Amino acid sequence: MKVVYQTCCGVDVHKSFLVATIIKTTSGVQPSYHKKRFSTFNHSILEFKQWLLDHSCRDVCMESTGKYWVPVFNLLEDDINVTIANPKWVKAVKGNKDDTKDSKWIGDLFRLGLVPGSYIPCKPIRILREFTRYRYKLISCRSSEKNRFQNALTVCNVALDSVVSDIFGKSVTSVIDYLLEQSTDSINHEEISSRLLRSLKKKSESVIESIEGYQMTDAPKYRMRLVHAHMDYITSTLADIDSMIDSLVEPYENAVLLLCTIPGVDRSSAITIISEIGTDMTQFSNSKRLCCWAGLTPGNHGSAGKKKSVRITRAGVYLKPALVQVVHAAVKSNKSPYYKAKYERIMKRRGKKRAIIAVARMILTAIYHMLSTGEAWNPTDLYKIDMPEPLKNKQKEKAVKQAMKLLIAEGLINESQLAS
User: Fold this and answer.
1) What does the pLDDT average to over 40-49?
2) Cβ distance 47 to 72 under 8 Å?
3) Which single residue of 69, 136, 257, 361 has CA 20 to 30 Å from 377?
4) d(CA 352, CA 86)
5) Euclidean distance between CA atoms 275 and 127, whole angstroms
6) How far is CA 331 from CA 213, 384, 386, in A?
7) By the 8 A CB rule, do 172 and 153 touch?
């Protein structure tokens, strides 16, 4: 194999230490190895950096072990070309591995160009990504708390969720607060009716019937107050995070507005997408590589002429859900039915889930080209869906006439046959 890096370093990173092996390839076939162990404290990482520079080594490869690689990457990225590898590409054989052998194995693979690097965005995008991912976790946590609150109502024989559409609306929240304040199981019907607003006033009898005979002791009340207080705290924290995200996304405002031209993409979804893939598409060789990195491309696993699995990978744990959410909004849009038509056509052949992933891949491909060229969303086959029916018929007639002219020119039919 051809040696890609004459001088490189393989690093096996752990929580409290790292083991590095510098590999130098000279005119001889056998390379030379220099191994050393460092702590993961900042002063020791800087010593590791100076050790690399002393050996004229500016190409380093290490596997993405949790978050342990981040402190090393932060101190090396200014002067050293650091490649972060997926562990599956540098995994050593079991039974013959330790920290020193792992670093040597990583260096040997990297020296021959056998390790594809993972995409690491620039520092501003990485900071934005931390906040968007934290926001995603908080929203999931708040949804869990809402489910706990609703389950507590069900256990206490309160069936409000069967009457109203939003259990956390203003009217229902006021009614629940009234129930939590009561010391007995009896309720005042007039008081409950007065707390209902707008259209719920017409359902006052049903609301009272769903509450009548509820069984709510002090322990469930205390638990529900704790859950509600936690939900309020998460909501206030999300408001603070949103304001911080708005300040961080200002340099990428044009890209956010560009992505918002895609059907189903709102501002929040656009910010999430940009925080995951950035705005510089030169990091990906083509749109297919980006889709593969996001985990939206079918797998390729076959042996002996048999295809064993075409499942998508687990990659893109934050980007993929955001794109799926965008797809669900896009396929329900009547203002721009482009992706709706694509989804319905694929769904008939492949089913709903595969159709959702296929449309998500189409949207990510469009995002790649939009960020590469700076053009707004305008697919080439849009006219086939948005074109009025009379124009579609004219296009069909025009295509048939052109086909007939070609057949006459080739001598396959004559004009008399065309007239008949």
Assistant:
1) 95
2) no
3) 136
4) 31
5) 9
6) 44, 17, 15
7) no
